Amino acid sequence: MTDDLARRARRILLANWRRGFTVPAQGLYPHQWSWDSAFIALGLRHLSAVRAQRELESLFGAQWADGRVPQIVFNPAVPADAYFPGPDFWGPGARHAETGLVTSGLVQPPVHALAAWEVHRADPVTSERRGFLRRLYPRLRRWHDYLLDRRDLGGSGLVCVIHPWESGLDNSPSWDEPLGRVLPVSAATFVRRDLGHTGAGERPTDLDYGRYVRLAADYRDAGFADTLGGAAFAVEDPLTNALLSAGETALAAMAGELGADPAPHHERAAALTSSLMDLLYDPGEGLFFARDAHTKSLLRKRTVGGLVPLIVPGLPVVEELLKTARGEHFRLGELSPIPSYDLTAPDFEPARYWRGPSWFNTGWLIWHGLRGQRHAQLAGRLRDGMLDAIRLAGFREYVDPLSGTGHGSDDFSWTAAVAIDLLEAPAAGGRAA
Description:
mainly alpha, about 425 residues, about 5% strand, two-stranded antiparallel sheet, Glycosyltransferase
């Protein structure tokens, strides 16, 4: 990598490193976030195999006894009120018994197995010397067990998210309908630290935040018990379940490498893919939709999460999904990275968190899926477009898909990590990086 973009990306990852993990950005995000660390490891693997492995090992060092991998691991060196909801909000039930670290009680999408396998493949000699796969594989298996057991709230074979933050697509329009049933707490009862770092027009509204706080507090007060009756918000999310299916395929590869039986992982991947197709795919729309586990109805908002199943090996509706992705709603191949929400929707907002802006991590997932589905040319165009977008806007958290204007935090770690990984990949049509 000789590109100046790569040098800048490396500097960001070095600056955001905190003795074993990487913060998403300085300022608003001073702790370790779960799926951020997975994407960050994908970039770090090109710079330091050991550091990439430590990124994931650090996160899984805070894994709960029930197998869940927490959404946030709080950095004890940071003031407790630097982020809301911080460690004091989650209480003693979220304190890790072995390390004493406090975590969130929520989770985030399971991209970790895919990341761990890619990190291993980048330097198998160092991975073997450090025992990376041998130590992480059983933890990854327990994480997936938790999701497939405790979080199959609807009994459908699909995982439920019980809070919008767990989806990764925090205030996606997909969540508006079930979230509307949640009584918000008053905005006067909490202090939003996010608005001290970016404008209100780029963040969730106070009303939505009040609902997020209500859901998190209720889950905490219930002892983090996972039941459908106790979850006011329970949604079967296509992005989460697609990543779990792809992750099971990655676990099968790890099992083979370690001399274990890969068959159970292949079976679970096939079952998840079947349930995705049966319950969340709409052939008339050529898109996957989230489903409300309480009402059993699809939440018919066209979001990037409905395209992420492209990452599932052997998905039977790849061409149908690509037709939708190339159409007016997402304009894949024309806009890069792909917008988070339907460009034609009346409530599309190009600058507001997950309600329209383009994000580089979901762009990476679709790019990776396109490569796996043997659509190399389209993958190459998406790669080139994402790199051009970063050159234009800088390493921003997200960008306006139409103007390319950057929004959210600057020097964002997963944007830097994605840039490094894309720069290591072939360009479309042999174009220089």
